[in-house]
Amino acid sequence: MGVLDATGRLTITDRKKDIIIRGGENISAAEVEELILQTMSGVVEVAVVAVPDERFGEKPCAILRLSPGTPAPTLTELRERLINAGLGRQKTPEHVQIVDDFPRTSTGKIIKAQLRLQAANNS
């Protein structure tokens, strides 16, 4: 998706599909999110977004909202659980961030474009 400015320049602002492209391989954010919810107890909501990477172009970052009192998983713990559940190592998140809540639209949908910016600044 993009925006045309007054001079006719196109600026790409987002993707229509929720895909992370890591070294030419497409990673479905929804697939990783679903597996995190299935394998990690205490995770209430999750969003997986792309963060920039010099070598691969993009890499996955998992942003988690945890139930109260749940300790934050380490990146190693998260990756091991996903790999043990059958996710390919190349698809596992390379960053994990914990949030109290997600930025949302007026209808309650998570604003992934805003999360990508925040994740890129924190990774």
Automatic annotation (TrEMBL):
Pfam name, any one: AMP-binding_C
The keyword Protein transport belongs to this UniProt entry's keyword annotation: no
InterPro entries associated with the record: AMP-bd_C, AMP-bd_C_sf
All copies of domain AMP-binding enzyme C-terminal, residue ranges: 32-109
Annotated Gene3D superfamilies: 3.30.300.30
Ion transport listed as a keyword: no
Alphabetic keyword roster: Fatty acid metabolism, Ligase, Lipid metabolism
Family per record: Belongs to the ATP-dependent AMP-binding enzyme family.
Protein name per the record: AMP-binding enzyme C-terminal domain-containing protein
